[in-house]
Design brief:
Elements lengths: L2 H8 L2 H14 L16 H7 L4 E6 L13 E5 L5 E4 L10 H8 L4 E6 L9 E3 L12 E2 L4 E4 L2 E4 L1 E3 L5 E3 L13 E7 L11 E5 L12 E6 L13 E5 L4 E2 L18 E7 L4 E8 L6 E7 L12 E4 L15 E10 L4 H14 L1 E3 L10 E6 L7 E5 L6 E5 L6 H6 L2 E5 L7 E5 L5 E6 L2 E6 L4 H6 L2 E5 L6 E5 L6 E5 L2 E5 L13 H4 L2 E4 L4
Antiparallel strand pairs: 1-20, 2-3, 2-4, 4-5, 4-6, 5-10, 7-8, 7-21, 9-20, 10-19, 11-16, 11-20, 12-13, 12-19, 13-14, 14-15, 16-17, 17-18, 22-25, 22-33, 23-24, 25-26, 27-28, 29-30, 31-32
Helix pairs in contact: 3-5
């Protein structure tokens, strides 16, 4: 048996619970006990647990807290100017892109607003006629389709002439010298040097009101003070009257170009003495601390005004046009100065969300796939067969795992043995053996050619029951889906007489990311 399975299956039940609780505590999440696990978390849940609650949260791709079940954004179709809100597939889940596709069929749509998920009223509205007023227009809604956890979503793809703004006097956004943190997921492949692709705190009057009147993340190839090293794009701080790569007008040599398709950018500012910049690829990897130190001279204390900008600088766009280009997937602003541990947990949550380009079906026959758990306790675990017996379990797999462990967690997609419109999953390292259920538990067994085996080994991919990833429906028990429960694989219904049919976390436990194959 591989070491990961020894850890997960041979340690006593109480020890497993203890280890899980310790791991989750390190990221500010809620531990689990027994067979129950922590509910799915979003970045705003993590910030709140760290004592720095979100005061604004925006995304066109997913909910940023586990309980959010409202609209993400609004689209307007060109054919009749009708408006439509686009929500999530389920609470805490991914955007309902199919609703946008249906509404916009045969015409074009623009994104007219991005809703504040905190309930604080800080909804971003485009800066143009019919929006918040101004000279800009709303961004086209369909420029970039992508996948989040295997589900289709759309980006807010901003070109020059598009920008968004929010100003709610009761919205709770920090003002003056109050501490603040913020992040956004953006793209290193759609950038320019125009002023200024920002997300964050800005002036309420659309004017450049002096040093410290802004506190926004900038992501661009713009080199404000000159002397930049590399080609960018870089994570910088727009504090008004300058984009800062560090704590002065001089170029910060610790800056790095962030060129991944999906990039996490972070800024925090305590308002009086210090700030920090961080960046990372949003699909994996830990944050890089680009700068942590004193505020630039002349910016202590800050004079934040509490409006929010997206896609432009603070003195835009009432009589002029935004000159910047950039992509926005999600972002949030928080009250207080987040800890490094909180920010690391937010980055881990973003990576686990499963951002990928395109919307290719991962279950095309002949493709290889690894199935990653989405319940927050187990996001590093994958569905795999146990080399010590024929049971199917979940256990961690990492880049340092053995080649056997990686192959155990890799499946070859085959046309469904009982129905070609569905799929069967053949082991990558046990040719001719398939994942099948027997007495509702999952096993890896050789195909014996019977109709019963074919039916037991056939599953139909569906949108994830939690709104994330995919759920695999049993062909011959359509009310049951592949689920992990107490680290073991079953087919389970949402309620029933078996322990693994418990409704607690059923939606999360039956939702899987179709991850890149380990082998």
């Amino acid at each position: 048996m591989v070491p990961e399975l020894l850890i997960f299956r041979r340690l006593g039940r109480a020890v497993v619970v203890c280890l899980a609780a310790m791991a989750l505590a390190l990221t500010g999440l809620v531990a689990f006990s027994g067979a129950s696990q922590a509910a799915a978390q979003g970045p705003c849940d993590i910030y709140a647990a760290g004592g720095t609650p979100c005061v604004a949260a925006h995304s066109t791709t997913r909910a940023l807290s586990a309980s959010y079940n409202g609209p993400l954004y609004q689209v307007r179709r060109a054919s009749d100017s009708t408006l439509q809100d686009i929500g999530v597939l389920s609470a805490g889940g991914v955007a309902n892109a199919a609703a946008q596709d249906s509404f916009c069929a045969g015409t074009t749509c623009t994104i007219t607003r991005v809703y504040d998920q905190t309930g604080g009223g800080n909804t971003l509205v485009y800066q143009g006629p019919g929006g918040t007023g101004g000279a800009d227009t709303a961004a086209t809604a369909t420029t970039e389709a992508l996948s989040v956890g295997g589900q289709k979503a759309y980006a807010l793809y901003i070109n020059p002439g598009n920008s968004y703004f929010a100003d709610s006097s009761s919205g709770g956004v920090p003002t003056g010298s109050s501490p603040e943190g913020e992040y956004m997921v953006t793209s290193g492949t759609h950038v320019n040097s125009g002023c200024c692709f920002d997300y964050g705190n800005t002036e309420t009057d659309h004017h450049a009101d002096g040093n410290g009147a802004m506190d926004a993340i900038n992501f661009s190839t713009e080199c404000w003070f000159g002397g930049c090293s590399g080609t960018g794009p870089w994570v910088q701080a727009d504090l008004e009257n300058g984009l800062f790569s560090g704590g002065s007008k001089a170029w910060n040599p610790s800056q790095v170009s962030e060129t991944s398709h999906f990039v996490t950018a972070m800024l925090k500012n305590n308002g009086t003495t210090q700030m920090a910049l961080k960046g990372a690829g949003a699909q994996s990897g830990s944050l890089t601390k680009l700068y942590s130190g004193s505020l630039p001279s002349g910016y202590n204390p800050m004079h934040k005004q509490g409006a929010i900008i997206l896609g432009s600088g603070g003195d835009c766009c009432q009589t002029n046009h935004n000159a910047s280009a950039g992509t926005f997937y999600e972002g949030a602003m928080v009250k207080g100065y987040p800890s490094d541990a909180t920010e690391a947990a937010v980055q881990a949550n973003i990576a686990a969300a499963g951002y990928t380009t395109g919307t290719t079906n991962p279950f095309t026959p002949g493709a290889k796939v690894s199935l990653q758990a989405t319940t927050s306790c187990c996001t590093g675990a994958y569905l795999q067969h146990d080399t010590n017996d024929d049971k199917v379990v979940i256990a961690p797999v990492t880049s340092s795992s053995t080649s056997t462990a990686k192959a155990d967690a890799t499946w070859i997609v085959r046309p469904g043995l009982a129905n070609g419109n569905c799929i069967s999953l053949e082991s990558a390292n046990a040719s001719g053996s398939y994942l099948r259920h027997y007495a509702f538990q999952l096993h890896l067994q050789p195909n014996d050619g019977t109709g019963q085996f074919a039916a037991d080994a056939t599953f139909c991919p569906k949108p994830g029951n939690s709104g994330t990833g995919y759920s695999l429906q049993s062909f011959n028990y359509p009310a049951k889906y592949i689920r992990h429960y107490s680290l073991t694989g079953y087919i389970a219904s949402n309620g029933g007489g078996n322990a693994w049919d418990t409704t607690s976390l059923w939606a999360q436990d039956t939702s899987w990311l179709a991850a890149a194959p380990w082998s």
